[in-house]
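Both lines are given unchanged directly below:

***
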Amino acid sequence: MRVSDWVYVSHDGVRITGFIVEIWEAVVKIRITDPKNRGNVLMVKKSDIQEAKHALHSQDIRSLIDLALELKDEEWFNQLVRELRKRNELEKTT
């Protein structure tokens, strides 16, 4: 488990999708990407986390760009922006 990993967590009976922003010994901070609560953060126990294994969509990359900005990771930000541009160009040609 590391920062930027996509995860699922059940919270108040609802399955939430997000990505890890910070990790502590027993707790993880997740930025929620579900439309209803997009951008909010949630603190959960590590034991409640399930790894999300799926393909990234353009909106997911936008969320990761937000994370890269928050972490001030310029190299990762530039990589994500290039990936998003490639996808946008492909969408225009199809």
